[in-house]
Predict the 3D structure of the following.
Amino acid sequence: MGQLNWIHFPKSHLPSNEVFEVIRSFEQVFASVDSSKHEHDSNAVLAAIEPGLTKAGFKVETSKKSEDKIAVPVLFGLNGTIDKTFNVDAHHASGRVVVEVEAGRAVVNNQFLKDFFEACMMQDVDHVVIAVRNDYRGKNDFTAVLAFFDALYASRRMVLPLKGVLILGY
């Protein structure tokens, strides 16, 4: 049996209360989403954690229909109208947290990098949670993503606009 793994960056800070709620939401359903036993797509994993996230005050994407997507502003145009948005899986507005749940594309297609980049561009977002599989076709996506963020934070070559990044392996 696998285990839920998570690590927060920078390592000198604990996650915010809202980010801890994401961890708790995964803990509550871990047996049903454990990637060492199940091959759920990201939508199924998001649906499993949705009750916990909703209870914690997150708005959660419930389908791929445009009215169910959660758009977070990135750029503003003429007269303050929203010019550009990025969609997220879940958002806690007052906690300034976005959540992205990935499955197969997390590492192979560098989806985790896209999620990270987009979170850096979003207005009023201080924390991002990127959830990836521990086991994807015999490889550990969590450790691959963790190695990337270890290098990013250790190098100190980039100043990031986020207060925290949580990588979670399910």
